[in-house]
């Protein structure tokens, strides 16, 4: 399992979660900013298309709201994505909502599985086992922990199951 890839995904998830595209005015501007940020941050390890970014943005604005995203420091007063978005810590309720939005809009489990499959140091059996451990529910829980600033705790919960896959 590559911790780096998971961290990249987590960081992008947080960026993506800011890409909301809600109703008019501030909501639409916030959503557009979040979506644009997600698309800008996309790379070979974590490719997000415009529809996925728009979905995440709309979901974040709908579920968390512009004011709360600003209170968290994810969005500036000018409704731009803040450069320190990766340092934001959400409440458990909002983190759960953000994680559900992200996993619902972006097939994170498939992206993760593809990333693991690209690791030629893992056997097919190990890759399959890790893919089973890192299912949609587990990824949603992990992303929620990351949004809460509890990334280490979330990763610690996975160590046992992932180690079982390796040995």
Task: Describe the overall structure.
α2 packs across α3 and α8 packs antiparallel against α9. This protein starts with a helix and ends with a helix. The N terminus is likely disordered. The protein contains nine helices and no strands. It has one domain. It is mostly helical. It is globular.
Shape field: globular
Order of helices and strands: HHHHHHHHH
Strand content: under 5%
Helix content: 55-70%
Please tell me the total number of domains. 1
Q: What's the gyration radius in Å?
A: 16 Å
Secondary-structure-based class equals mainly alpha
The average pLDDT value, as a whole number, equals: 83
Low-confidence stretches: 1-23
Give the biggest beta sheet: none
Number of strands: 0
Distance between the termini: 12 Å
In short:
The protein is an all-alpha fold and 167 residues long. The chain has 9 helices and no strands. The chain has one domain (3-166).
